[in-house]
Amino acid sequence: MIFELIQDFHDALAAMPKSHGAYQALELLAGTLRLEAYFLDREPLQLPERLHGHLADEHDAIIRRLLAVAHPRWKSWLRPCFSCFAPPGGGLVHSLEGHIGGVHCVSFCGDQMVISAGSDRSLRIWDIETGKCLRVIEQDVHRVNALATFHQENYVVSGSRDTTLRIWDLANGVCISTLEGHTEAVTCLAVTGNDGLILSGSKDGTIRVWDTVSRLCVKVIQVTGGAISCFAVDNERQRIVVGSGNMLTVWDLASGECLVKHDCEWNISSLALVDNSERVFTGSANFFWLGTMGVLVREVDLATGTCIRKMIGRYGRVHLGDITSLVPNPDRHLVISTSKDNTLRVWNCKTGECAATLFGHTGEVISASLHTNGRILVSASHDRTLRVWDLDTALARSPRQGHFAEVHALDFHPESDLLMTASIDGTLKAWNFETGRFLRVFNGHTDGVWDVAITPNGQYAVSVAGGDPYYINTNDKTVKVWNIKTAGCLHSLEGHTAKVVSVSVFPDCRHALSGSFDTTLRVWDIDAGKCISVLKCDSPISTMVLHDDGRHVLAAKDEGCVFVYDIQTHALKGKLEGHTGYVSGIVLAQRGQRVLSVSLDGTLRVWEFGTFRCLNVLRTGKNNLTSVDVSPDCRYAFVTSADGFLTVWHLETGEALAGFHARESLSCCAFDLLRGRIIAAGVKGGLYFLQFEDTCGNIILQKTKCS
Q1: What global pTM score does this model have?
Q2: Helix 23-35 to helix 61-69 angle, to the nearest 10 degrees?
């Protein structure tokens, strides 16, 4: 149904002059449907949420009238207040869904079709204009690692983990030949432009040259350096540049002779030749967390093996995960990198700057293929999708103001419009809660920022650094105090000996409490900039919250139990026991009389503070709950999960009243009673400002200014 509707829009736009008053609105609607085609094909009732999520910031009069009536008539819902998804007409054109496993490779076959493969034992052919899957070719081979298209376009060769290459007739959907010879997985492929040879690289350390007519191996090149991770073919000079481990080598295809050999200081995961065959761009796969440093694309002189230039993005940003492939765009002097940090970056080969960052995938991006027009790019990801990008539009867009990595925490000031977010990208950012507008960035941490808290007077923010969520060790173990108006760091407080994961501020605005993996809780005098008390626990703190009375702290540990301590006496006052998994969120309600906790065990529990009795257990049906907030009367809970859902639960009935799917894992949320608004944040840096409304569009749970 949805694909037929997209085709109807396409036909209507083709027949309508661009000067028509409704053309822009139809183009925006068609673009939104293309972006959400596969999601709406499965979840058609989510259409109102998706329309608002893409078009809320549009000023077109027809779009505004449409959004005014676009809400569910049968249930309460969470309405996006601002555009929180990729805008139609932006860099992202399509999301192609259908694979049931990770997609590892993609290749253009003709002007309008691409073919993809991965771990689900199928090849899929797609129409990139409509986003429709045209054909599924089932196969019995192991994971396909590489694809290359013949110039006849109806044939493609695949290389897989089972050590074989296979040639496919796309018109008939059959394998017409299997090429055997490698002894380990095939990692890279190419079809040469001059004489129709197939080149294959393998973990067995060899490059094999195959004749496309006889389908026999005509040459074997034993490469120095072990398993081959990548190569780039120089058709003009009939040579091949190879990356294997940290070895960079150049080989003559005719003689099989090694022309150049260099031992690099980095592990080479990908290669691209762009403007000058004497220079090559390399991507690396030795990611480790270094705050704002990460994985680099380097320009290397082939003659000497020296790094000529490191490609650095805006504000020093680089990839925060292994680089998986490099795609050259020589006509535009660009190279595109794909990465395990879920993004693609477009680099200017002349200036070394990052011209654009492409956000959209929710999993590791493994490879990409560029259309011969140099404009349309298709990427393949472990999130089981392909994404179609328009590079012209992506390069024309203004730089992203949001975070570049997971937003792990947020806090807002209830009596002002201030919202602050803390991210694994090493920064804090301030936003206007009312308008969603970015205000300023706070730089100073040298590792990922794990938590942030605003003082009750709204003058200061306190943040803690915990590095990358997947690593225990961190270089930055500080607690920092910030002047919110100037974004200046007033104090950098040291004392913790491991990652610091949680922070709260006391009602007096003069003290803060931090929790760390070093098994301690520390009380800080933020005016004097010193630690005044250390409470020692028996295991690492995973999350904590300061009680409203300013005397007690509730701290969760890895074993799924929440411990209650008296901060002044350091005495253990009680335990909240019942969760069977890691406790990921704790929040207080009813002036501290009730405690809510969520866990990776999929349950939400309500506790009575003082007696520490469990009053209610809500089984959400989801694993990996990541955060919770609650209405002041303790009737409604707002819960996020790693599958991308924010759900509103009625705690008395256990009913799910409303839900919103962000299409990225959600990490945290907060509820603002003054505006009746919930904000959630995701692992890709997305922020979602949502209004809880009934079927008539009335705001639920909003406090009046005079009450």
Answers
A1: 0.78
A2: 50
